[in-house]
Amino acid sequence: MTRSASPARIRGALVAALVSLIWLIAPAPSASAAPAARPTPHPQLAVTGAALIDAATGRLLYGVRPNAELAIASTTKLMTALITLEHVHNLSTIFTQNDWVAAPGDSQIGLVPGERMSVHDLLEAMMLPSADDAAEDLAYNVGHHSVARFIAMMNAQARALHLTHTHYSTPIGLDTPGNYSSPLDLDLLADYDRDHYRVFRRIVDTRSAVLRAGASSLYVVNLNDLLDRYRWINGVKTGHTDDAGYVLVVSATRWGMTLIGSVLGTASEAARDDNALALLDYGFAAFHLDRAIRSHQVLARLPEQDSSRRIPVIAIRPFKRVVAKTARVHVVLRLPKQLSGPLPRHAVVGEALIYVGRHLVGRDRLIVTQAVPAVSPVSKAAHLLARPSTLLWLLLAAACALALTVRRRRRKRPVRGPVEER
To answer: Where in the chain are all domains bearing CATH 2.60.410.10?
Structure first.
């Protein structure tokens, strides 16, 4: 004997069938749809100050007291190098060491008064092993035999570059009153040096060098040991004093973007390196290079007036920017609905606005890739006649004219009366 199904079982079966049906007809998730990027946690840094910038724009990406005015040790030599490069155009020029003698604890290459060395080798000695005697030699000679004049030049340049939290009282970086900078200013100065002087970029990315001092040679090694450990790190300067602690300004390039970071007040060389790496790792994990507009990318195809052609439109230059991976980048085009000739090739016809979120971060002019000639009256008439709407109106006009003609003929036809019977 079979039992009839209870109402509860029937309802359960119906619900299960409905769920199965929904699952079968629901669209599968797109394989190309990536999950939304999660914010990268900020690095935990044991520093008195730190800053990370995008080298392309100088924009601050992250900082720990980025504008704090702190002792900076031998990263002072970033400005000493800049003043030297701006005033000495022939780096083969030979300078003679003045009568300054470094203290026993200072970093030096052992230059003695009267010793001769090229400006190029003095720069390498100053930037790689951080030689104080080389920095003194450069300052004395570039300052026309006056270190005080050279320091005044350093401060004038700091003002010109708008390094508002920077002041110098030494070209070397010893702990002297009035010699300070901020993490952000150090990054911006290193970025300026790298951007304006190829020789500076090459020197700070050099692991070791052989210098010529008179008739003797001297082998020196870069104190920035991260250069040997990571190929993507390419500069820039170390420093250490009792007041400053261990300091490092470091640059690195990965995935098409260059970041510059600084860590100040770390406890040791190992802590300096670890904090610098943590700062860079955060930057490359949290940000990426977004190419909102690529080179020769066709952004639109505008119809030509009274023609069936569509003219490609591109931006004058590509646009790329380092942005957070969680940010949404989009481009808004401002263009006419159609193009009216005559227009020469590369004529500006609109602009592109680039937004990160709701913030406008860039704009670029839009140009046509080919000339747009003026349209002749015959072409205009032919194009007008070829339009379906025009043909429809012509047909309607012809029908109306035909109807009027027939009606007039009917009116003009004579009216015949009844025929009489005979």
So the answer is: 294-368
In terms of residues, how long is the chain? 422
Whether residue 191 contacts residue 58, with contact meaning beta carbons closer than 8 Å, is answered with yes
Residue 19: predicted pLDDT: 40
Closest by CA to 303, choosing from 337, 342, 350, is: 337
Assigned CATH topology for domain 49-288:
Beta-lactamase (3.40.710)
Which residues are tagged catalytic? 74, 77, 130
Q: Is 277 exposed, middle or buried (0-12, 13-18, 19+ CB in 10 A)?
A: buried
Residues 219 and 125: beta-carbon distance below 8 Å? no
Task: Indicate the fold that domain 294-368 takes in CATH.
Answer: Peptidoglycan synthesis regulatory factor (PBP3), Domain 2 (2.60.410)
pTM value is: 0.79
Q: Where in the chain is the domain with CATH 3.40.710.10?
A: 49-288
- Distance CA(279)–CA(299), nearest Å, equals 37
Q: Which tokens go with 363?
A: 């704009």
Which pairing describes strands 310-315 and 348-356: parallel, antiparallel, or unpaired?
unpaired
Max CA distance (Å), the chain: 156
Return the H-helix or E-strand segment holding 219: strand 216-221
Percentage, residues of the chain above pLDDT 70: 84
Tens of pLDDT, residue by residue over 51-102, are 999 999 999 999 999 999 999 999 999 999 999 999 999 999 999 999 987 7
